[in-house]
């Protein structure tokens, strides 16, 4: 790496606020303060990077200088094509510059090598304009101002304004365009970052948490999208009192990672324009990543690669003032930075340091894989362009874009009743482990305390003391990013010194749901050392088989043959170590093995306290158990206790009295849970026995075994729905549900290529782990399968198989949702089926699906609905997708017409068939009946 600081690049010793490299790389522009006005200067890049060119007086250094702005220029940005340059200033104006072929110079400029003139002046802001961003393909340009607004300008028809986006309550200091073109992001002094949809330029998401401690200490807040569109990195954020550059993931808009290390506020961040690739040093496999530069008020600059956990380089005291802007060359390894002290620095990297840019073809293939569109040619926008619209009703929707359906809205409405949800699985963090949750009751309670247990060797183990559940709780999946994180826990911690204890699995259990946190994240996230564990699986059984006397034996043959038999187990049960506490609503249950010493052996003590006011922590009851408890579950009515001797106890949560007699299993229980309505209790034992009891009827509901699905894995999660449908997630990422009617296990997640492709390419919206509302989606989201490598997709350009695979996947999803009685998800997958058919379907397949839902005009009412949803409603959902594709307009009109006529004809026939008739009326109504049938025919 080389650092160059050309002294001749300056604005007469005035501050330079912005810098941007031309897409061609042969020039760059600077914007800032002039002698008595705002100044924009276009410089030649060759003298900066070449000493010979710098000494050659025939090569111009300054190409053009424009002093048209009446006040300081805050930002300059080249268009993607490089034909236009946009500048904004404190004079409330935005100027669009274009190179002219004729002679003469710009107004107010000296004789220059190039001639640029202002082709448009954009007036719309009522205050200083601070930042600019061109959209992909140069269709629009976004500007942000101190007037608290962001304006979208039509770059094809300057100075036309498309939208004025209002929502910020402070100065908007930064704006960035999603490289995919779907969103615009803006950051303001009001301590928020807002994401706007480009489809109608409405507010889509507001991010506040990382900026709550920030102050208005920077002149600008230049944020940046990664070139693959997966990450948005903001400027000035705070974490634990220290300045950071916040990472916001596109998947769920999570904010659990950031870039740390700068001592003062981050002013600007800028991603390299290319997706980079290189061979990984250890595995020698091709890896793809992005490169980011971060500038700060502490006068230092850092460069990060997303493939590394530490910065690639950090340069301190690069300038005498704050770094105000950064710019990467599009196809090279040059980084330019400018400062408030009026100087510019150039950093030259090598291909060995940064990597090789992904080719345009591979990049477009990656966009096609990730977003279903080509970044240069929007295939969806071109489809059906030349089709003739035959029906006037379809004219209004002919320009509408076909979009994939979304199952889960971005913000779920509050659900008043308590529903079972999977507790949040915290990401292991370098400094501390954060366990956050909220109760599903109407009045939420704060997290009280955690117990931190220190063993003799100095290691720590944190036991959560109060983790209530929420129906809308989001569970962050194990991320694959390599960013460093500095999130810190804000929970109060109580420390307890204990004697050394054997390692035990760390689990989080509440509201009848048992989650092995470490088992679910062991293969997909890097665990903190104190959270790592080795799952204990019973040793294999060795069996000895005597030799066959009829077969001749050789001299070296052993007398007996030994083979190894691996028993099929679902896991290893271990006694709970130390005090284990669960909280649900107003109740807190504590289990302590070995709490009471007797002459017959130690006893386990179970205590239930009431947390509600006015007497918090009032003890309701306690009891003792003769065998150590290995698993327990809690519901609003009952407590389930499972011991190492295989015994199971159901107790009333109000008084501790037994609900059922003590029952015994052939092996200890490893998982226990309740349904959300407290009616069903379920357990899973070591030897794969699965049982579900109906506590209201006090009878067995389901008795089965999961040996067929276990193999060499072990169970990490058990859940049972209100309808008695069990779900099991295995350590290898596979998941299954059991159909009592079919007496078989149904596959909900596996390494099957069709299922991997289907789950990776269908978007269901925001990640919401809600097992009651979305059981299938929630279970399928728990997977430690690594995401598909973009390189593997690029290596196989043949994508003809994708629609066939997607159709198989979607139709199977419909059948699973129907079997587990999930009408909401079934309706969603019918909508997804319509989306896939509208895009890639054939007329034969479309008619087959529509005919199945339309049914015969003489069908009975019993088969006219699925899970309570009328088939005609599902038919309308599919037709709503087909109507957006002009090539299917005739099919849409045909079936829409049949659907409109169907209810009247059907009701008339039903009246004739079902209405009680007298003897004198039969002959009179027969002709009417025949006439109706003829009409239908």
Automatic annotation (TrEMBL):
<feature type="domain" description="Protein HIRA-like C-terminal">
    <location>
        <begin position="656"/>
        <end position="853"/>
    </location>
</feature>
<keyword id="KW-0853">WD repeat</keyword>
<dbReference type="InterPro" id="IPR036322">
    <property type="entry name" value="WD40_repeat_dom_sf"/>
</dbReference>
<feature type="region of interest" description="Disordered">
    <location>
        <begin position="538"/>
        <end position="562"/>
    </location>
</feature>
<dbReference type="InterPro" id="IPR001680">
    <property type="entry name" value="WD40_rpt"/>
</dbReference>
<dbReference type="InterPro" id="IPR019015">
    <property type="entry name" value="HIRA_B_motif"/>
</dbReference>
<feature type="domain" description="CAF1B/HIR1 beta-propeller">
    <location>
        <begin position="1"/>
        <end position="354"/>
    </location>
</feature>
<feature type="region of interest" description="Disordered">
    <location>
        <begin position="432"/>
        <end position="511"/>
    </location>
</feature>
<comment type="function">
    <text>Required for replication-independent chromatin assembly and for the periodic repression of histone gene transcription during the cell cycle.</text>
</comment>
<dbReference type="InterPro" id="IPR031120">
    <property type="entry name" value="HIR1-like"/>
</dbReference>
<comment type="similarity">
    <text>Belongs to the WD repeat HIR1 family.</text>
</comment>
<feature type="compositionally biased region" description="Polar residues">
    <location>
        <begin position="432"/>
        <end position="444"/>
    </location>
</feature>
<keyword id="KW-0804">Transcription</keyword>
<feature type="compositionally biased region" description="Low complexity">
    <location>
        <begin position="484"/>
        <end position="497"/>
    </location>
</feature>
<dbReference type="Pfam" id="PF09453">
    <property type="entry name" value="HIRA_B"/>
</dbReference>
<feature type="repeat" description="WD">
    <location>
        <begin position="165"/>
        <end position="206"/>
    </location>
</feature>
<dbReference type="InterPro" id="IPR011494">
    <property type="entry name" value="HIRA-like_C"/>
</dbReference>
<dbReference type="Pfam" id="PF07569">
    <property type="entry name" value="Hira"/>
</dbReference>
<dbReference type="InterPro" id="IPR055410">
    <property type="entry name" value="Beta-prop_CAF1B_HIR1"/>
</dbReference>
<feature type="repeat" description="WD">
    <location>
        <begin position="122"/>
        <end position="163"/>
    </location>
</feature>
<keyword id="KW-0805">Transcription regulation</keyword>
<protein>
    <recommendedName>
        <fullName>Protein HIRA</fullName>
    </recommendedName>
</protein>
<dbReference type="Pfam" id="PF24105">
    <property type="entry name" value="Beta-prop_CAF1B_HIR1"/>
</dbReference>
<feature type="repeat" description="WD">
    <location>
        <begin position="66"/>
        <end position="98"/>
    </location>
</feature>
<feature type="compositionally biased region" description="Basic and acidic residues">
    <location>
        <begin position="451"/>
        <end position="460"/>
    </location>
</feature>
<keyword id="KW-0678">Repressor</keyword>
<keyword id="KW-0539">Nucleus</keyword>
<dbReference type="InterPro" id="IPR015943">
    <property type="entry name" value="WD40/YVTN_repeat-like_dom_sf"/>
</dbReference>
<feature type="compositionally biased region" description="Basic and acidic residues">
    <location>
        <begin position="548"/>
        <end position="559"/>
    </location>
</feature>
<keyword id="KW-0156">Chromatin regulator</keyword>
<keyword id="KW-0677">Repeat</keyword>
């Amino acid at each position: 790496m080389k650092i160059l600081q050309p002294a001749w690049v300056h604005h007469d010793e005035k501050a330079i606020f912005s810098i941007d490299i031309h897409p061609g790389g042969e020039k760059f522009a600077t914007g800032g303060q002039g002698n008595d006005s705002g100044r924009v200067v276009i410089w030649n890049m060759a003298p900066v990077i070449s000493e010979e060119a710098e000494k050659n007086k025939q090569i111009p250094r300054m190409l053009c200088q424009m002093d048209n702005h009446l006040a300081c220029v805050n930002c300059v940005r080249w268009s993607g094509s490089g034909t236009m340059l946009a500048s904004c200033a404190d004079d409330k104006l935005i100027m669009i510059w274009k190179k002219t072929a004729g002679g003469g110079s710009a107004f107010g400029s000296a004789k220059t090598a190039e001639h640029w003139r202002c082709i448009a002046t954009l007036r719309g802001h009522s205050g200083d304009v601070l930042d600019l961003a061109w959209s992909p393909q140069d269709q629009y340009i976004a500007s942000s101002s101190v007037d608290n607004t962001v304006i979208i300008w039509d770059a094809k028809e300057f100075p036309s304004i498309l939208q004025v986006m209002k929502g910020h309550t402070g100065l908007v200091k930064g704006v960035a365009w999603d490289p995919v073109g779907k969103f615009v992001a803006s950051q303001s002094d009001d301590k928020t970052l807002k994401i706007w949809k480009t489809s109608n330029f409405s507010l889509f998401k507001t991010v506040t948490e990382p900026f709550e401690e920030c102050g208005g200490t920077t002149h600008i807040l230049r944020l940046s999208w990664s070139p693959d569109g997966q990450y948005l990195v903001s400027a000035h954020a705070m974490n634990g009192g220290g300045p950071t550059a916040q990472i916001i993931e596109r998947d769920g808009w999570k904010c659990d990672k950031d870039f740390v290390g700068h001592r003062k506020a981050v002013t600007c961040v800028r991603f390299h324009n290319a997706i980079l690739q290189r061979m990984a040093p250890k595995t020698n496999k091709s890896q793809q990543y992005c490169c980011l530069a971060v500038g700060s008020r502490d006068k230092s600059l850092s460069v990060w690669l997303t493939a590394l956990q530490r910065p690639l380089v950090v340069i301190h005291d690069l300038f005498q003032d704050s770094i105000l802007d950064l710019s990467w060359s599009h196809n090279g390894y040059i980084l330019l930075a400018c400062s408030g002290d009026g100087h510019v620095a150039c950093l030259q990297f090598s291909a060995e340091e940064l990597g090789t840019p992904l080719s345009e073809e591979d990049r477009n293939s990656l966009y096609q894989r990730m977003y279903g569109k080509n970044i240069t040619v929007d295939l969806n926008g071109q489809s059906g362009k030349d089709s003739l619209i035959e029906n006037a009703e379809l004219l209004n929707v002919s320009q509408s874009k076909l979009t994939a359906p979304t199952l889960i809205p971005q913000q779920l409405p509050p659900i008043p009743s308590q529903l079972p949800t999977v507790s949040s699985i915290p990401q292991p963090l370098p400094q501390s482990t954060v366990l956050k949750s909220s109760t599903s009751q109407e009045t939420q309670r704060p997290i009280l305390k955690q117990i931190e247990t220190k063993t003799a060797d100095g290691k720590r183990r944190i036991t959560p003391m109060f983790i209530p559940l929420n129906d809308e709780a989001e569970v962050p999946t194990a991320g694959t990013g390599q960013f460093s994180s500095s999130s810190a826990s804000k929970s109060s911690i109580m420390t307890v010194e204990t004697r050394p204890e054997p390692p035990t699995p760390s689990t989080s259990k509440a509201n009848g749901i048992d989650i092995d946190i470490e088992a679910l994240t062991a293969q997909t996230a890097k665990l903190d050392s104190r959270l790592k564990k080795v799952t204990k699986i019973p040793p294999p059984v060795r069996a000895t088989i005597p030799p066959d006397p009829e077969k001749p034996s050789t001299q070296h043959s052993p007398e007996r043959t030994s083979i190894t038999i691996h028993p099929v187990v679902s896991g290893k049960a271990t006694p709970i170590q130390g005090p284990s506490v669960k909280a649900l609503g107003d109740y807190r249950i504590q289990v302590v093995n070995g709490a009471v010493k007797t002459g017959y052996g130690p006893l386990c003590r179970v205590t239930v306290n009431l947390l509600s006011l006015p007497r918090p922590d009032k003890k309701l009851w306690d009891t003792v158990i003769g065998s150590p408890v290995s698993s327990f579950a809690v519901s609003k009515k009952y407590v389930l206790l499972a011991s190492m001797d295989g015994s199971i106890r159901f107790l009333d949560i109000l008084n501790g009295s037994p609900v059922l007699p003590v029952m015994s299993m052939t092996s200890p229980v490893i998982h226990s849970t309740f349904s959300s309505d407290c009616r069903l209790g379920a357990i899973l034992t070591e030897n794969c026995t699965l049982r579900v009891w109906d506590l209201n009827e006090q009878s067995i509901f389901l008795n089965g075994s999961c040996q067929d699905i276990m193999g060499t894995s072990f169970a990490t999660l058990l859940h049972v729905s209100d309808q008695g449908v069990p779900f099991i997630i295995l350590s290898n990422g596979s998941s299954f549900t059991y159909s009592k009617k079919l007496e078989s296990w149904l596959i909900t997640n596996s390494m099957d290529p069709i299922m991997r492709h289907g789950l990776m390419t269908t978007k269901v919206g925001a990640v919401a782990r809600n097992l009651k509302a979305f059981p299938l989606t929630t279970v399928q989201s728990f997977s430690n399968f690594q995401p598909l490598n973009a390189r593997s997709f690029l290596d196989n350009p043949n994508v003809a198989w994708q629609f066939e695979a997607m159709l198989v996947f979607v139709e199977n999803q419909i059948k699973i949702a129907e079997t587990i009685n999930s009408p909401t998800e079934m309706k969603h997958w019918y909508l997804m089926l319509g989306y896939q058919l509208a895009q890639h379907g054939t007329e034969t397949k479309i008619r087959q699906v529509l005919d199945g839902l339309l049914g015969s005009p003489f069908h009975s009412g019993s088969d006219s609905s699925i899970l309570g949803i009328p088939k005609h409603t599902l038919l309308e959902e599919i037709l709503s997708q087909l109507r957006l594709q002009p090539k299917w307009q005739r099919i849409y009109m045909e079936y829409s017409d049949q659907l409109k006529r169907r209810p009247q004809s059907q009701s008339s026939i039903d009246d004739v068939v079902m209405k009680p008739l007298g003897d004198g009326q039969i002959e009179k109504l027969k002709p009417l009946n025949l006439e109706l049938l003829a009409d239908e025919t």
